[in-house]
Design brief:
The structure is a homodimer.
Chain A (H helix, E strand, L loop, with lengths): L1 E4 L5 H11 L3 E6 L19 H7 L3 E4 L5 H13 L2 E4 L5 H4 L4 H7 L4 E6 L14 H7 L2 H4 L14 H24 L3 E6 H6 L3 H8 L18 E5 L4 E5 L3 H11 L13 H6 L1 H12 L4 H10 L4 E3 L3 H4 L3 H5 L3 E3 L5 E3 L4 E2 L18 H8 L1
Parallel strand pairs in A: 1-2, 1-4, 2-3, 4-5, 5-6
Antiparallel strand pairs in A: 7-8, 8-9, 10-11
Helix pairs in contact in A: 1-8
């Protein structure tokens, strides 16, 4: 599987990184000065960018000037032999560079040519610039996140970029399955706005079904209580009890079995109505011990709970390590692993570090010229 | 493409809904009382659940008792003819029901048997219960979201469920591509924790590269300013100027070209260091007009910006409507569309509403018995 990768920064490279993790040969075409993320931190001791590494591990690199006729001809040769092309320029840029997606698929009918962009290849907004923050704002995601008395809150990772990359990967693999049946390739058009909008399931079911306007409600569940985060002596913990059975187990674990009789806590509906009282009562007890102690007690009691962790703690969890979600490369550098695990073949992707700029250039020139 | 769908609630049905949108025949096996979401709101006028609809549009339904020998035999027959099985019970449940994933793939070597769970099919935490809120807490996502002086904040949609469904779909289509080459199926193992962890790219590049602990920083970008949300007269707007050129355009649009000379705003690094001052100065101007007015002015000036919208407004955007992201079914009910668009075939999925419980039961029994 040969992938020609014109992507840069985040949404596109996330998609092609997934292709590399699945065993495809990904040739990352960079401009002569390299992908922008090579010049963005954070950097490790040898001066290389971890931003570039995490997005480009397992790929090959060739540095080209797409406006130079010789390089242009080389790229056309590469595309003619490719299974998949991926790019995330603004709509129209590939056409200006002489590689119009529709034309390329017409010329090479088995080719899958995938474009990832802010708003998509068509529609009135298609030419506008988008950044993750703008898409989080427009999609409703930001407005849904935070407390009712606080402000709309950006998700603390570039989820709109990353999810567009994952949806791009999904659409490419779907097109590959279709190609096996029809022999035909296709263009693929994935946008950050569409992809982020497709995450908004709970909010959209309110807006599309009964035509209600959803509002942000902090960390709690809209219909169940206690299903929220709670302060302990040192830090918060998430506790999720969606029915009377779990509520009962929780009360025993907290040492307050008598609350089961309390009139305003009797049913889930009552606890939901009086959630502030339930939360205050629970936190008064939870604040007597550290979150990790409560986590042990609650798990022992069979109550669903989890610590609110910084990702620097998450990455050290046994479960994350055991499942190869932090991958140590041959040279000792670390990157994110793949969440796609299979029973019958290696699920841990390639072990090759991200390439140096033009690292594979000579080899690729010889191969395709 | 035949998919046997044992899923319930959210992560699993998101995956099989994507399979249905891509043209697969998805038979949703429900227990005799129906999927839990049939009994969860929000409901529309005819009493049906929009939660169930949004997750199950385009599927067929059969109601079965998997412990009844006759129904069990029927299901085995269905699996023997299927391309894909998807389930999201806790690890071990399918085995207890007599459909162990590994055994099924051994028996039907072309089968792809996908399991989606909270923590995965192996690892020390695999048997634990997980809910979206717990995974958002453990993954580092919640800790990364919100302001430094505020609390860890849950993302306002069940992103850990939905993304696990999307990753499940990605892994299944990958396995289908592999099957075309090898003739062999496989088990697939996707977890909510792995999937959510894979979103944490920016935070992980700090933690894995220079071994720094990332902290939440509100809505602003870690390295560029102004790249943040700003209050206007009525509501916030996102404005993203990552370089001096855009900063210059912004100052003209705000009517303060003289700020270009201001010592503490001179470079991106200075603006980042003095972001509080930049924000205060900008907001003093922005608060004189409504966000929609500024949105027009900024777009006119070529400054990347976007309104912070409630999803009930997002769903009415031209760009969302034009791209079929809200899909009106044959019966007039509305559901979420698909973000995967292709040039050469219908990208809008099926137009069939979610099935009534056991709607296709008789037909399916005749077909497979």
């Amino acid at each position: 599987m040969l992938v020609i990768d014109f992507t840069h920064v985040l949404s596109g490279p996330t998609c092609t990184r997934m292709l590399a993790d699945s065993g495809a040969r990904v040739i990352h075409i960079e401009r002569k000065t390299g992908d922008d993320t090579r010049h963005m931190g954070p950097y490790i001791a040898d001066g290389s960018s971890e931003y570039f590494r995490i997005c480009n591990a397992g790929k090959e690199s060739i540095a080209l000037d797409l406006k130079d006729p010789k390089d242009h001809a080389l790229v056309e040769k590469m595309i003619s032999k490719a299974d998949v092309v991926v790019e995330n320029f603004r709509p129209g840029v590939m056409t200006r560079l002489g590689f119009d997606p529709k034309e390329m698929v017409k010329k090479y009918p088995k080719l899958i040519f995938a474009s990832i962009s802010g708003f998509g290849q068509y529609g009135p907004w298609s030419k506008q610039a988008a950044y993750d923050t703008i898409v989080q704002a427009l999609s409703g995601l930001m407005d849904s996140t935070g407390t009712p008395d606080g402000k709309p809150t950006r998700v603390g990772t570039s989820v709109s970029d990353v999810v567009a990359g994952i949806i791009g990967y999904s659409a490419i693999t779907t097109a590959l399955v279709a190609r096996e049946r029809t022999g035909k390739g296709t263009t693929v058009d994935v946008s950050m706005l569409d992809s982020t909008f497709s995450l908004m399931v709970q909010n959209l079911m309110l807006a599309l079904g009964p035509h209600k306007v959803p509002h942000r409600i902090g960390n709690r569940h809209p219909d169940m209580y206690p299903f929220d985060t709670f302060d302990c002596q040192d830090q918060p913990i998430a506790i999720c009890c969606g029915n009377d059975h779990l509520w009962n187990l929780l009360l025993n674990a907290l040492g307050h079995p008598e609350w089961i009789e309390q009139a305003n806590f009797k049913t889930n509906d009552l606890r939901e109505q009086n959630w502030r009282d339930v939360k205050d009562a629970m936190q008064a007890v939870l604040k007597t011990k550290k979150a990790a102690e409560w986590d042990d007690i609650l798990h022992e009691a069979g109550v669903p709970a989890g610590l609110v962790l910084n990702v620097d703690k998450t990455r050290r969890l046994d479960q994350i390590i055991d499942r190869g979600m932090v991958k140590t490369l041959d040279d000792g550098n670390e990157v994110l692993g793949t969440p796609m695990k299979y029973g019958t073949w290696n699920s841990y992707g390639l072990q090759k570090d991200s390439p140096k700029l033009d690292e594979d250039g000579d080899k690729i020139r010889k191969e395709f010229e």
